[in-house]
């Protein structure tokens, strides 16, 4: 007798999702291109349901302090995080590397409903929490270098993860009395399953605190780049903002951001350039200057390497969409 293999499309998660409305991906970026959710400090937890289609979602690389899970329901989705690109099949769950510049990647035929769960770390664990609560955050902090945290479709734990996520969605959108308590209970169960799956039990609480401190130390640098990307930004300035020596800053930045400081600044500028090409009537030369490139040929070359097309091609594709 052959047992039927598990299919994410047959899960209760899809049944629950089919009852809910998935909105077009229209997120609001501030003038620097930074995107931040507005959280209720008493309940810093948000689920967003997006329907992403080819040439029909808000472009742009971003980073954020909140932690995030990302799951495509129907079609293949691709996510760029730092220098890594990961392809996700329907039902696969990605633990987003939030401090690295990341974005959903567009491609012909892209059409998927996507569940995005965002929360602040203190929703689960803070310095005043019981020491064992740090276990819930391990999938977000105990990363092995260059390893992407994905629960794939051949994972035995995935059906249980989908079932827990289905109950979480149902509770979140029903908004019945004390739904916040129910959401937290289901969400902690989900995080527990993820922590077990990634088997990060050797990661110590002291290491998690150290990782959080590193992120906090670099936050002024990320904020400054986001607000001043069009200006000259040197490595020495980054080190000064982080109050670190140049060698220590260089090592820490690459470890946290997944790329060098210079590459990060370039990616932020290119992300803003893509947004301006799609949303403004500025010429390509004006866009290049606006985001901090003094040499248009260098801008064209970097843009093509980042997005696989010329700046003029990106604008043409937008106007013909």
Residue fraction in strands: 5-15%
Distance between the termini: 51 Å
What CATH calls the topology of the largest domain is Jelly Rolls
Count of β-strands: 9
Count of DSSP-assigned helices: 11
CATH architecture of the largest domain: Sandwich
The general outline is globular
- Fraction in helix: 40-55%
Strand arrangement across the biggest beta sheet: 1-2-8-3-6-9
User: What is the CATH homology-level superfamily of the largest domain?
Assistant: Regulatory protein AraC
Low-confidence stretches: none
Radius of gyration: 20 Å
- The total domain count is 2
The helix/strand series, from N terminus to C terminus, equals HEEEEEEEEHEHHHHHHHHH
Using brief descriptors, characterize the structure shown.
321 residues; alpha+beta; Jelly Rolls; Arc Repressor Mutant, subunit A; 2 domains; 6-stranded mixed beta sheet; 9 strands
